[in-house]
Amino acid sequence: GLLTRLQTSAPTIGTPSSLKSFSQNIPSCLWKLGRLNHVAIAVPDLQKAQALYKDVLGAQVSDTVPLPEHGVYTVFVELGNTKLELLHPLGEKSPIASFLQKNKTGGMHHICIEVDDIKAAMTELKKKKIRILSEEPRIGAHGKPVIFLHPKDCHGVLVELEQA
Hints:
Layout: H1 2-9, H2 17-24, E1 33-42, H3 46-56, E2 60-61, E3 65-67, E4 72-78, E5 83-89, H4 95-102, E6 107-115, H5 118-127, E7 138-139, E8 145-149, E9 159-163
Parallel strand pairs: 1-5, 6-9
Antiparallel strand pairs: 1-6, 2-4, 3-4, 4-5, 7-8, 8-9
């Protein structure tokens, strides 16, 4: 009957061989990526950005924290499964100031992904010719070691890795 014809004519769905070979070619690492910690957004007006997320969207928003060693003011917006980090320039040499000169209304600055072993990640990434923007990890906004990977080596995205 009809059911037999449907069962015999229905295509079988499998994993393409290209995906199987891809996953088999991934070497095991001495470190692992963890969860997305935050997405950082450079903002020209920190108070307006805080008000948007707190008063308009109803999010829990932290106080402003200056991080002079990074040249930024930070504010974290809690989203439940991750955070947004609002960045505003602090000082003349702030990397956010130069970003905002090119992007007057602000925009996404970087993503931050947790890793279980930042030193092992650095060693392996250097071997794989991924440029790291500092010789050693620095302490980030969460009080944990962080490094940044060069955006030209990460398909145009500035990637921050943070020790979990």
